[in-house]
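SAMPLE LOG
Freezer: B-3
Tube label: C17
Construct: single chain, 352 aa
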Amino acid sequence: MIKQRRIAIFVPHQGCPKDCVFCNQARITGQKREEQLTEEQIRAIVDQHLRTMDEKVHVEIAFFGGSFTGLPRGYQKMMLGVAKEYIDNGQVQGIRFSTRPDYINEAIMEFLLPYGVTAIELGVQSLDDHVLALSQRGHTAEQVATAVEIIRNYPSIQLGLQLLPGLPGDTKEIAMNTAQQVVNMRPDFVRIYPALVIAGTELEWMYATKQYKPLSLEEAVDWCAQIWLLFMKHQIQVIRLGLHASEDLRAEGSLIAGPFHPSFRQLVEAKLYRRLLDTIVKDYSSEEIDTFMIHPADETAVRGPRGANWASFAQSSVDLALNSNVERHQCQLAMKSGKIISYRLRDLESSS
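STRUCTURE (predicted):
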């Protein structure tokens, strides 16, 4: 399998018509809104990353942090033109960017196509109109559906959706309903960022005046585990789970409240693996199992926080073996009877 690599170039909050209640891209990305990039800066960023990459990787230049298709057309042309040079010389294989659902139409898509755009990520956040209104998104769920339909008319471009569970007005039921609607839209991939209270946002004021209560870490892990499980069942890839914080966001006073954890994805995986281990215990006694085989990347999640998952499961001598031939998010049990039995996370029953 060819490895995927992305060269991230941030245009923080540029192209956005207004501030959503949760957004302070300057703190999230560590860059200021007014810092417009030059051709030289873009080339320097791309060249620096390419020097550290193996030749046998699939590389995309990714413009993130703002609403790309809301930028001045001349600025878009400059950035896309520089990126296209790297596509034409074979060093880069595509371009991706994030934008708003209401900043997509047929004319925009026709403009983008010649530059070699390979993926568009829509900042959806929620598919509940009440949540969108309280978050001051300025678009509706219907506009998301329209944008998805338009992008789907261009098969060479992948579709990604970005979700923020836990926004004002959100509930677990609403979040799961949003996830089900996302399943019906059949995106190629999804990012999930539980809502955080960041300094300098309206959400900070709402939190301070007790108009908004963020999810606890435990709630966020629970919600995201169920959302991710639904996406697994429908083979929708989750490429990011939890915010990757810049140094600026990690600085004292930047993150006010909310379910931030540097290893949030592992916490969610560990919760799902705990359920899988509980299921196995119901089906077999540990005395019947000789070896529990998993992909090496799943070891931390299988063991769980402070090793609690594995300690609870392996009360007798079950060997934990790492095997890169085992698929991610599944395990193979080598039974003492000689049988090999497989379990997958996506086969877990959905819970309420």
